[in-house]
Amino acid sequence: MPAQGGRWGRFLEQRARQLQRQVQAKEERIVELETENAVLHLRLAQYQGMTGKGDSTATRLCSQCRERDLPQRSTAPTTPQLHCQVQNLKQDMKALRASSLEVFRTCREHLQDGLSAAVEAVQRAQLCHEALLAWQSKAGHLERSLQEVSARYELEKQKRKMLHNCLVELKGNIRVHCRIRPLLPFDKEFDDPASQDSSVPAGVVHAVDDETVLVKCDRPAHPLINKTYNFERVYGPAESQQVVFGDVCPLLTSLLDGYNVCILAYGQTGCGKSYTMLGPRSKEAHVPPWGPHRDLGIMPRAARELFRLISENPSKSLKVDVSIVEVYNNDILDLLAKERRTAVSGPKRDARTSKAAKREVSPPTRQPVHSAEDFIALAAGSLPLRARLATQVHACSSRSHLIITATLTAASPCGSPADRQSPGPPLEGRPAWGRASPGSPGAQRPAEQVHAKLQLVDLAGSECVGVSGVTGSALRETLSINRSLAALADVLGALSERRGHVPYRNSQLTHFLQDVLGGDAKLLVILCVSPCQTHVAETLRCLGFGAQVRQVQRGQAGGGSAAPRKPSLFSKEPVTC
Ligand SMILES: Nc1ncnc2c1ncn2[C@@H]1O[C@H](COP(=O)(O)OP(=O)(O)OP(=O)(O)O)[C@@H](O)[C@H]1O
């Protein structure tokens, strides 16, 4: 029994322990559940709070909705209206979409256009840039070649100048041209039936070719005349003023190169000297019309050419002064002096020679001119003062030798290349650049100034007293004219024969022209002859004078021995036929 009791007891004990553990677990579970319960209570309280808030919000919203719904409900559109509106809206939307698409498309096109234009512009700019670079290099190249060409041009210019002067010297510093004027209404032969017949050559003087003139005259009771003369140039009656000036032009180049130049018209009265030198003149004014005119004479053409050449070479800064004198009855009269304008017998300018054999000319008035027009206007103003007379040969015979001088003054003190290169005698006749000759008007200027002179000389006509029919004071004029022309012939004769003494002082004319009658000054003598039989004796005399002048040329250009001495063809006495 006790063993049973012990077992029972242990069983109970274990059971008690088991139960105790279960109770403990249950108690723990209760605690847990109580905690959970408390948490749930808390949550519930929270939700309840939230729900309360939501309820009040809902209530508020509901009341708000109600407040809002009330008016809407009264104006609210009906469903078809809404449908219609929706349809309209859809259409609007569609239109909007279409126009946006259109705008978009246009913008895209513009953009594309703009882009392609920009691309083109960029390409063009690139091309331009490349072209610019090419042009720049070309310009550089051209500039360099221009410099080279300019340098070569300067060199060639110097050579040209040298060659030109050599050529002029080879042609002769003294050249003789002959111009035969046409038969004119005042000529006796003009109405002759033979002269109307074009198959018979009019007159007795003919240009055979450019260098030969033939005088052929078979008069009853006179010996037959059949003579030819050669000159550097012969102009027939039909040759124009322009052609004549064409041969004068090169001399103006020589003038700019620093040489004294003289163009001198020689011949019988009425044979066209003034026409050749100045141009045709109107009866009233005695002055040629000097506007643009195809018959302009050498003087106005030379004035234009001179200023053209000066303008081509502005670096030389040349100044031009003009003086105009007439040699009348062996007196030099200054046509530019103020007194001369009021009194025809005006101030005389004498050419004298001092003991030291230097020519001293009381200088004529020198007017500066700045253009060809100034030059021409000056001549036009003074020419009416020139002494004239109506003779039996023609109505407006010049009774004096007219000398128009243009003096060129340059700033350069060292002289022209022509001065340094040209051969020739050391003093007289050397190019005038670089020296102011003591007797010349240029001597008044400061010593460093240099100059060259252009002299245009319209000589009074040699006259056959019997033909011109002059008497009294006109006869005295004629004697004086013929004497001075004979003195000119003597001077040229002495030069051609290289005589030690040249009689410049025998006449005021030769004295005044001394600078240009010798040395390497360029002298062009234009012999003017009439084609008429009436004047054949004077024509032969004139052509003989020309032939004598050519001897001077040969003597100097050839540089050889002096030409053989010939009896002078000229007489100091007036010609009487
Ligand atoms: N080549 C020519 N063509 C047309 N007319 C001319 C020509 N030569 C001269 N004449 C005319 O002949 C006339 C006389 O000419 P000009 O006055 O030039 O002679 P000149 O030799 O100067 O005379 P002078 O010595 O007496 O003054 C003028 O009317 C002139 O217009």
Commentary on this structure:
There is one protein chain. By secondary structure, this protein is of the alpha/beta class. It folds into two domains: 92-171; 174-414 and 453-557, 3-Layer(aba) Sandwich (Kinesin), CATH 3.40.850. It has 14 helices and 16 strands. Strands 1, 5, 6, 7, 8, 11, 14, 15 and 16 form a nine-stranded mixed β-sheet that branches. Strands 2-3-4 form a three-stranded antiparallel β-sheet, covered by helices on one side. A two-stranded antiparallel ribbon has the order 9-10. A hairpin with a 5-residue loop joins strand 9 and strand 10. The protein is rod-shaped, with a radius of gyration of 60 Å. It starts with a helix and ends in a 20-residue tail after the last helix. Residues 181-182, 184, 267, 269-275, 280, 394, 396-398, 460-461, 528 line the site of adenosine-5'-triphosphate (ATP). Adenosine-5'-triphosphate (ATP) is lined by residues 181-182, 184, 267, 269-275, 280, 394, 396-398, 460-461, 528. Residues 173-552 form the Kinesin motor domain. This is Kinesin-like protein. ATP binds at residues 267-274.
